[in-house]
């Protein structure tokens, strides 16, 4: 059974500092890995998707890496802003033919202080 | 609007009542997923459809839960004889099976069972 863990559970940083969020998973047989952002009481917004054959993806200030063999992914957010305050969730999906259901970690709650 | 929509956004009900939620996916997305998220946790998979066929149900989906996707378009999730433990955010996501298959999430329906 796939298990996804995110450490730390909460993080508080001053504005301008870089954020490093960690995600680990137990079964390396994944199809892809997604990072999501969730604001309080809201749905999920997809930030980045890394396919199992890829090592990283970048979008603006966000960069996500994937090391499938070690079961790890890291999300980097450069030059954090108060608007980055949210919960960040990582999720892995299994092989496509078996249905692409996502297994989520518990999330990292981020607070960026002005 | 091309996003995933869910209705209602909030539902308060008394224990023992039946509730039904609706999800309208992004048009032409052939896969539709339901997840449940309790406070402070990541979402957990409930069930998914490919077109109108329900292909997998989680063990979390007790016999009080039923989901349908008639004609492969919108989907409904019904909970019969609600219990306080059913209180959660119910999230719907859709994806296109062809291609990378990023899942796009709706805003969720927050259920409170009194």
Name the descriptors.
heterodimer; A: 114 residues; mainly beta; 6-stranded mixed β-sheet; 5-stranded antiparallel β-sheet; 11 strands; globular; B: 114 residues; 7-stranded mixed β-sheet; 4-stranded antiparallel β-sheet
Describe this structure in words.
The complex is a heterodimer of chains A (114) and B (114). With 114 residues, chain A is mainly β. Chain A is built from no helices and 11 strands. Chain A is globular and about 45 Å long. Chain B contains no helices and 11 strands. In chain B, the strands form 2 sheets. In chain B, strands 2, 4, 5, 6, 9, 10 and 11 form a 7-stranded mixed beta sheet that branches. In chain B, strands 1-3-8-7 form a 4-stranded antiparallel beta sheet, with no helix packed on it. In chain B, β4 and β5 form a beta hairpin. Chain B starts with a strand and ends with a strand. Chains A and B meet through β4, β5, β9 and β10 of A and β4, β5, β9 and β10 of B.
Helix content of chain B: under 10%
The SSE order of chain B reads EEEEEEEEEEE
What value does the Rg of chain A take, in angstroms? Answer: 14 Å
- Note poorly predicted spans of chain B: none
Low-pLDDT segments, ≥5 res of chain A: none
Number of helices of chain B: 0
């Amino acid at each position: 059974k796939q298990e996804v863990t995110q450490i730390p559970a909460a993080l508080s940083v001053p504005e301008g500092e870089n954020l490093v969020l960690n995600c680990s998973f137990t079964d390396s047989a994944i199809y892809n890995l997604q990072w999501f952002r969730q604001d309080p009481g809201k749905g999920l917004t997809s930030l980045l998707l890394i396919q199992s054959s890829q090592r990283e993806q970048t979008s603006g200030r966000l960069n996500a890496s994937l090391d499938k063999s070690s079961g790890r992914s890291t999300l980097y957010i450069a030059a954090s802003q108060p608007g980055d305050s949210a919960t960040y969730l990582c999720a892995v999906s299994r092989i496509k033919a078996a249905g692409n259901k996502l297994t989520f970690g518990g999330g990292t709650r981020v607070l960026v202080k002005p | 609007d091309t996003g995933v929509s869910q209705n209602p956004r909030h539902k308060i009900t008394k224990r023992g009542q039946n509730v039904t939620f609706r999800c309208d996916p992004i048009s032409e997305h052939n896969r539709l997923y339901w997840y449940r998220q309790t406070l402070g946790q990541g979402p957990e998979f409930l069930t998914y459809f490919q077109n109108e066929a329900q292909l997998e149900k989680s063990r979390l989906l007790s016999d009080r839960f039923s989901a349908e996707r008639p004609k492969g378009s919108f989907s409904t999730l019904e909970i019969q004889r609600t219990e306080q433990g059913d209180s959660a955010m119910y999230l719907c996501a859709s994806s296109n099976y062809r291609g990378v298959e990023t899942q796009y999430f709706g805003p969720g329906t927050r259920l409170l069972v009194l």
